[in-house]
Amino acid sequence: MFDLIIIGAGPGGYEAAFEAARLGLRTALVEKGDLGGTCLNRGCIPTKTLIHSAEVYEEIRDAGRFGIVTGTPSMDMKAVQAHRKSTVDTLQKGIAARLKAAKVAVSSGKGTIVDAEKKLVRVTGNMGDGAGTAGDDAEAAGNNAGTVGDSADMPGTVLLEAPDILLATGSVPAIPPIPGSDLPGVMTSDEFLFYDGEPLKSLLIIGGGVIGVEFAGIWQAFGTKVTILEALPSLIANMDRELGQSLKLSLQKKGVAVHTGAKVSALTQAEEGICCTFEEKDGERHCTAQAVLIATGRRPYTEGLFAEDCTPGMERGRVLVDEHYETSIPGIYAIGDVNGQFLLAHAATAQGLRAVRHIAGLPDDPKPDWIPSCIYTSPEIASVGLTAAEAKEKGIAAKSHKILSSANGKSVLTLQERGFIKVVYEEQTHRILGAQLFCARATDMVSEFAAAIREEQTMEEMAAVVRPHPSFCEMITEAARVSPPGTLSR
Question: Measured by CB atoms within 10 angstroms of the end CB, which terminus of the chain is less buried, N or C?
Answer without folding.
Answer: C
